């Protein structure tokens, strides 16, 4: 717990990527009209959840008006509105809503983190920024030691392969791999609005991922 707390403090204080620092703070200053009365987080977003989790979820990066606003992964945007009902159904979350850091959401046996911690323009961190941020994900993996790593999207998948020095695996929705570390790697499409509104990712497909994550972790 102490290690995780110290790591999260280092994450929140990080200013290593000039482009992202400028963007996250500019978005937090200008704000979207719908949130004009809110104080945006505007800093790197740390992981959150159960420190004893057997399942670690790795996303892409904060949304400008989602977690860059609320300060918690997948909180306050369309991706979170798709993710948390599924996690609640599967028993990983105590409620289907994720609106703010004070909304009472608790994760059980799950830790949620990301490949990049700062909101990027167009939701696209560049390779140098992802490399800068990689150490934080490495440290989370060391501390949590999950049995199952669920990658939401190919960027998270590639980052995990890079960290674990694994080659030759292919990303596809539902693909499952046993890693040399004896951990399971499970792939899912990212629950972005683009994927869910086009039905590339349906709730049935997503539910099956969390059932599989549960099975692999026990
Ligand atoms: S993306 Fe990561 S490394 Fe870059 S400034 Fe944000 S927290 Fe630091």
Question: Would you kindly provide a written description of the structure presented here, covering whatever features stand out?
Answer:
The chain has 218 residues and is an alpha/beta fold. The chain is 41% helix and 11% strand. The chain has a six-stranded mixed beta sheet with strand order 1-3-2-4-6-5, sandwiched between helices. Helix 1 runs antiparallel to helix 5 and helix 4 packs across helix 8. The chain starts with a helix and ends with a helix. Bound molecules: iron/sulfur cluster. Iron/sulfur cluster binds at residues 11, 14-17, 20-21, 44, 116-118, 129, 132-133. Iron/sulfur cluster binds next to helix 2 and helix 5.
List the helices and strands and how they pair.
Elements: H1 2-12, H2 18-30, E1 48-49, E2 55-59, H3 67-70, H4 78-89, E3 110-114, H5 127-144, E4 148-152, H6 154-164, E5 176-178, E6 184-188, H7 193-197, H8 203-217
Parallel strand pairs: 2-3, 2-4, 4-6
Antiparallel strand pairs: 1-3, 5-6
Helix pairs in contact: 1-5, 4-8
